[in-house]
User: Fold this.
Amino acid sequence: MNLAVLVSGSGTNLQAILDAEARGELSAKVKLVVSNVAGVKSLERAAQAGVPAEVLPHKGFASREAYDDALVERLRAAGVELVALAGFMRIITPRLLGAFPGRILNIHPSLLPAFPGLHAQRQALEHGAKVTGCTVHFVDEGCDTGAILAQAAVPVLDGDNEASLTARILVEEHRLYPAMLRAVAEGRVSVHGRRVVISSPV
Assistant:
């Protein structure tokens, strides 16, 4: 299955996906990386892996829908079948969702539905949570509200700050996201309302 990864920043989850593909553990081929921000490290990671990468700045488009229309054109031109958001700091519109129904995934640094949106790690610390983690979910029109594929728990330690908690959550993100992309690419995922069933364990 041909995969596109949408990014806005440093791209550590992109790197985990590229590494999984290089090890033969992804069951998908990264055909394109698209960033809405120029000059980010994600673009360097794509170049080092020999993956085509494009910058599609969101500024200059009249609306989010217009931006997503342009994005869909590029994804379709590359033969993309599956889309992974990896730190893509844009709200997805129905234009993109409709072009790839049930084929857009995201990774979020909390155990959803707890702490959606920005700064989830900071939210966990401010609320005194003892356990947080990460969630791989399908993308819908809401903010981190799509059906959940899998989660991994990470304890919040007494001495944690935002940076240390983020680093430990990232370890689990880098393991879980490629595994879930592989499950989807292999056709092992089925969705029943809000319930997601994976036919064999990760």
